Amino acid sequence: MTIIIRRPHAADLQAFLDYRNDAENLRLQPIQPMQAADAAAFLLAQSNLADDADNCWIMFAVERSEDQRMIGEAGIYIEAATKQTGDIGWSMNQAFCGHGYATEAAKLLLDYAFNERKLQCVTASMSAHNLRSIRLCERLGMRLEKTMRHAQPVGDGWHDVHQFVLESPAASPSCSAS
Ligand SMILES: CC(C)(COP(=O)(O)OP(=O)(O)OC[C@H]1O[C@@H](n2cnc3c(N)ncnc32)[C@H](O)[C@@H]1OP(=O)(O)O)[C@@H](O)C(=O)NCCC(=O)NCCS
Predict the structure, then answer these.
(1) DSSP conformational letter for 145
(2) Average pLDDT over every residue of 94-108
(3) Nearest ligand 1 atom to alpha carbon 97
(4) Per-residue pLDDT tens for 38-61?
(5) Phi, psi of 11, deg, nearest 5
(6) If you placed Cys at 62, which of 13, 25, 105, 157 could pair as Cys (CB 3.0 to 4.6 Å)?
(7) Distance in Å, CA 172 to ligand 1 centroid
(8) Strand 57-64 vs strand 69-78: parallel, antiparallel, or unpaired?
């Protein structure tokens, strides 16, 4: 095991800001730079989330085992209405990309989704320009379910958005993303 995923805490602030406000991260996702005070409040709220939280982003810090360094995050938004589907995402410090850490973190997140939260389906959505995220979905065995035209305001304009889907190994055959 080269990484673990764990709940975040206050001491993650600088590592969090390092990737959260990275230019590549801002270029590829519909997010704005975050100030340190807002980031600290966000991490505090995340560290206090209940184990069965839903209808909110549940963030896990990705920590490298060899030096306990936080190198990114993986997270999931679980729909409260059915508690059967979740939308996953990830962000890595660019200095630690290209080593398979994000893939390993995403697999641990899928284990959390399917085995701890007992979800039936997991989706992941990203700009069609986000080639590294698309390759990550493919490595996870997710299938491209649909493409929404001009659906996401990202950096330089409106991008098409791909939605990938993965069913739980235990899911019924009728399981599909909304
Ligand atoms: C999306 C993102 C997390 C992917 O990062 P990544 O480094 O490509 O993913 P991994 O850590 O799994 O590394 C996989 C890459 O490392 C390579 N690699 C090297 N050693 C490896 C190993 N031991 N095991 C697996 N892969 C390895 C793989 O070949 C792959 O490269 P490739 O895609 O060129 O084939 C990263 O690009 C990122 O943070 N982007 C900005 C945030 C973002 O867009 N988030 C998604 C919003 S939906």
Answers:
(1) E
(2) 97
(3) 7
(4) 999 999 999 999 989 999 999 999
(5) -70, -5
(6) 105
(7) 31
(8) antiparallel
